[in-house]
Amino acid sequence: MNTIKVMRGTFFLLLTVFALGVCPAADKPPNILFIMADDLGIGDLSSHGAMDMRTPNIDDLMVSGCRFSNAYANCPVCSPTRAAFLTGRYPDMVGVPGVIRTHRVSNWGYLSPEAVTLPQVLKKAGYHTALIGKWHLGLVEPNTPIGRGFDHFHGFLGDMMDDYYKHRRHGVNYMRLGRKMIDPKGHATDLFSDWAVDYIKQRSDQASPFFLFLAYNAPHTPIQPPEQWLGKVKAREKGINEKRARLVALIEHMDEGIGRVLAALKASGQQDNTLVVFTSDNGGQANVGARNAPWRGEKQEMWEGGLRVPTCVHWPGKIEPGARFEGDSMTMDWLPTFAEVAGVNCPEGIEGQSLWSAMNGRGSDPGERALIWVRREGGSKYGGQDYYAVRRGPWKLLQNTSLEPFELYNLENDPQESTPLAKSVKERRELESLLREHVRRAGFIPWQGRVPDQERVK
Q1: FRET pair for 155, CA 20 to 30 Å: which of 57, 135, 193, 398?
Q2: What is the separation of C-alpha 118 from the centre of its chain, rounded to a whole number of angstroms?
Q3: Under CATH, which number does the domain 24-363 receive?
């Protein structure tokens, strides 16, 4: 494996692009396939140390492409990370500081009508844009996939499914083809994989490139793998407990679906001109058996385990197999990255920065920028308020609810975030100042919008 060390002041990834004389913007833009798992812990892939897991298709992407060592989700929960991905912005800067939910009392976001989305950006380069799978950024117009720029939507509008086979949330059917309600049969993971395969086949003879955002519900709760997959795990992993076995089976089932999608790319002759990214929206949920090793924390928490996500990029002939990218990245960086690859301009005011130039040794060091995380949540634990983390270089200031004090860590010396530093450390004041300015700016952004009438959407 080619390992590239990225020291402070250097943001470099060994690729073959310039050695081959290839400039993405000068040639026909590639297809883009962006695969996002839901609540996949960074320790829950066999490529990342899970000894009881078999994920050969994701593992192959990690080995045959560039694996990221320090990839961060923009939030330890779902909606804000997805908003950041689709807008290139911090989620509270586009009205999504927390999870968008079905009922007003528990809803903590509304995607700003003024935000420019990734499919809108890529259409400038002639892309056909599609979302297959989970949306989770709104249930009514204009905040549906079609309303926010996707040409094709085949999937689930809501947050989590109460059942992977029935596809309902609170008894309401949020499955859609475009804007039409549908009621398909089968496990949601299989459906999303099948629909992605169909879409790739349909685009194989089209002149325009495609952008496909394939967003799985797996392995989000309920942990409901097909019984045959659960049986295979139990037969292979002697002594595994039921909770862990179910999660392993759900992840392995998703990996098989990803393998079918990648096989469709190859069979249709589109593999060599398709840039593939795999990632997760946040860390895993520990009480259902997820593991975020070697990091502390989990989903909903600002510890590294809630924020770090398995990530890789694959593009045959353009990205050196076995490469390692040691720099920091965030989910919001993909919009400007894809815009640069496609040869189009980014929207003004975004906080994300393109990884493409940096990957080729020409970009700025992400260690020089501050990274900020936010989540708003209700209930007595959170009080309907935001809680935050902010990092610059090795220094990280965090809290895990709005009701607890901030703690400062040096990740270089204490990567497990085990020993908070004294309040007198000067870096604490600098991070506090950065966070205050972000809070001030985000305070101008509305986050409350329409929540649908449940009777109307049934």
Answers
A1: 57
A2: 14
A3: 3.40.720.10
Contacts of 149 (CB under 8 A, 6+ apart): 117, 118, 119, 120, 123, 129
CA dihedral (348, 354, 356, 358) positive or negative: positive
- Whether the Cβ atoms of residue 413 and residue 423 lie closer than 8 Å to each other: no
Lowest mean pLDDT among 7-11, 106-110, 184-188, 368-372: 7-11
* Distance from C-alpha of 58 to C-alpha of 279, rounded to nearest angstrom: 10
Distances (CA, A) of 159 to 118, 255, 274, 276: 20, 21, 29, 24
Interatomic CA distance for residues 137 and 115, integer angstroms: 13
pTM: 0.93
Please report, for the chain, the start and end positions of each structural domain, with discontinuous segments joined by +.
Answer: 24-363, 371-442
Q: Rounded to an integer, what distance in angstroms lies between the CA atom of residue 261 and that of residue 279?
A: 15
d(CA 233, CA 30): 37
pLDDT given for residue 243 in this prediction: 98
pLDDT per residue over 76-95, tens digit each?
A: 999 999 999 999 999 999 99
* One-letter identity of residue 390: V
CATH of 371-442, one of 3.30.1120.10, 3.90.420.10, 3.30.230.10, 2.60.260.20: 3.30.1120.10
Question: How confident is the model over 130-148, as pLDDT tens digits?
Answer: 999 999 999 999 999 999 9
Rg (CA), the chain: 21
| CA dist list (Å): 332 to 326, 395, 449 | 17, 21, 23
Q: Which ranges in 168-320 belong to alpha helices (H)? A: 188-202, 227-236, 242-267, 304-307
Instruction: Check the CA dihedral 7-9-12-18 and report its sign.
Output: negative
pLDDT of res. 325: 87
Pick from 209, 202, 153: which is nearest to 182 by CA?
Answer: 153
